Amino acid sequence: MALSDDYNYDFWLLDLDGTLIDVEWSYTREVFDAVGDRIGREFTDREATILWNGLTGSRDRQLREWGIEPTSFWAAFHAEEDPLVRAEQTFLHEDAAFVADLEVPVGLVTHCQQFLADPVLDSVGIRDWFDGIVCCTEETGWKPDPGPVEQAMREIDVAGNGHRGVLAGDGSNDVGAAWNAGLDAIHVERIGHDRRGRCVLGDYRVTSFDELQ
């Protein structure tokens, strides 16, 4: 896919879940059922969708609004996620294929933890798309904090050189992280603003990367 002149950046950063890949709903539902059993609190389909996709921004803030302590939730969540099962249930969005053809440095900045991201990247065959991969941690910070974005820029050797870059992602945290790091932001709306309950503004808003042609 040839990008239009508007998208001829010197480097690209991308989010992973919901942007390049997604998982089958049955997997998400099973994980939240198991997590609910662990913490003694059931999750509706809507609540599971909100947390899985980060529809309301900060997942920790959303958990607290529901009266759930985030540390306990994430401990249960990561205990229930099986990396190999998740990899088997993950699919690549067809319109994401353009990333393989980018002829500039490309980095990945994801909230997906490394023990999950590694088998997923291998399963869908996209690890070699990236010159650098950052899986956010407490040490790097979490989007919209610019910390992990700046780390990715260092890994792909574009930090501080004045090059024009962009971060593409499916959530408001991605847009915020891009702007906080001084980059342009592309919001990819996979969910739809009706289901999300809000519109996410970016420098560009698309429903598919095919629109970048």
UniProtKB/TrEMBL annotation:
One Gene Ontology molecular-function label: phosphoglycolate phosphatase activity
A Gene Ontology BP annotation from the UniProt entry: DNA repair
Signal sequence, renumbered to the chain: none
Superkingdom in the source lineage: Archaea
InterPro entries xrefs: HAD-like_hydrolase_sf (IPR050155), HAD-like_sf (IPR036412), HAD_sf (IPR023214)
Keywords: Hydrolase
SUPFAM superfamilies on file: HAD-like
Alphabetized PANTHER family for the sequence: PHOSPHOGLYCOLATE PHOSPHATASE (PTHR43434)
Stated name of the protein: HAD family hydrolase
